[in-house]
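Record type: monomer structure entry
Structure origin: computed from sequence
Chain ID: A
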Amino acid sequence: MPTDVKVPALGESITEATIGQWLKAPGDAVALDEPIASLETDKVSVEVPSPVAGTLTEQLFKEGDTVAVGAILARVGEGAISSPAQAGAQGVAQAAPSGEAPSGAPGSRPSPGNEEAAMRLSPAVRRAVLEAHVDPSAIKGSGKDGRLTKDDVLAAAKEKSSPAQAGAQAPEAKASSAQEPKPAAPGPRATPGNRNEERIKMTRLRQTIATRLKDAQNTAALLTTFNDVDMSAVIDARARYKDLFEKKHGIRLGFMGFFVKAVALAAKDVPSVNARIEGDEIVYHDYLDVSVAVSAPKGLVVPVVRDADAMSFAEIEKAIAAFGKKAKEGQLTADDMKGGTFTISNGGVFGSLLSTPIINPPQSAVLGMHRIEDRPIARDGQVVIRPMMYLALSYDHRLIDGREAVTFLVRVKEAIEDPTRLLIDL
């Protein structure tokens, strides 16, 4: 008798989701706990695992449909594979190019390398392998214990389709292609002025982002103040201690730890920046939960580093790196993004020189970091070149006065330009 696959609980206050993608088609074999579909909520993307091993017999909804929590999404019949390892092996077989005998296919014995690779494929990586049509056993993994990551698969697929790869084909293939007539170059449109358009429905996550950002503009009295910061001291500190830091903590020393610490220090002097308006009351926090804006495949998300003011540099960097990896693989949960009292957004990683970030309600302020570039500045009556970064603080003027916003940003600047302040709490 087929087993129902139901929409799982998706987090507090989330009652429905949109089917973003079917990962399995009717007739496909599935393993126990293997994802068969990806759901999009207004906060995160969630993969739905199969409760049993068997064969997907029925899909009850289409991609793009809205489904309620608890609804029957699909049905899985008995039989077929029974373990994730076998599912991974099948993914390898499906990913093999036509005409080749893939490892695990009938009539061939899977090699230890392929079997090991199949065992290590996470759901997100397995899906990337199937979409890119690459052999995971031929890819060197960069993850923990040599495991494949999604980036490894995408890089291998890009290399496979590169012109250099095509130019390295066998001599027989080159000779054959040389005899074939070259396709004509694309000409102008058959009908002058005929321009096509494509309409794609916004994802639930993108709709929510749009709504929340517009609500922030409509509700808060938004204002942005700017400053610039000399990054020389932080850059020197990283250069001096990065090897020791990585050796001790197993992670690179980045810039974000310095800024989180600087924000925690500045918030002690200007607590309103770490507060929120609730009705006719102001709610102050004696803790700092920093929402760190990171880029995900389907939009910007803001996982929360909790009690960041009590964390060490290493703990902050580890938390942010873990969130970045989860975001890239679509594994962030609603709990990861719940709460937050202050946001730091780093547009500099994309090359942004200056911006006016929008606050993340119900928070009252957001700090925008930007790219570092050498600029001439005056120091002791001399023009010198320094690595400078523009900082932007957007804030809700209903709660935070201009004087407080400027003071906060100056405190951040002082801490970054003299990191010793972070150690002696000045």
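Annotation 1: The radius of gyration is 26 Å.
Annotation 2: The chain has two domains: 3-164, 204-424.
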